[in-house]
Amino acid sequence: xxxxxxxxxxxxxxxxxxxxxLADFPLQGSYLARQKSRKLADSRSDxxxxxxxxxxxxxxxxxxxxxxxxxxxxxxxxHSMIDMGKGAEKFGPAPDQILHLTCKxxxxxxxxxxx
Length: 115
What we know:
Layout: H1 3-7, H2 9-24, H3 29-35, H4 44-66, H5 69-87, H6 93-112
Helix pairs in contact: 2-4, 2-6, 3-4, 4-5, 5-6
């Protein structure tokens, strides 16, 4: 069991939020930020690689905070899907962040069995 889970739901959510902020901003960089958008990517393979790399960074953060590879795998898939929607201009930056944080909240609920 991860330290964050042992500290309770609020600490777990805070850990997810901090890791998300690190992964989405300083760990992303301009190359991944540009190439993970299909419309801005230099090629299809650059888009797939950048989106995958960015999602793996996020999945790694979820794994570090939760201690769960299953939740890391869920994050890998969900983060990719959300970022594909944003990259296709289905929604903007605020809904993008809300969707990502909603995923983290769902992880907290399941991991701590709050409900």
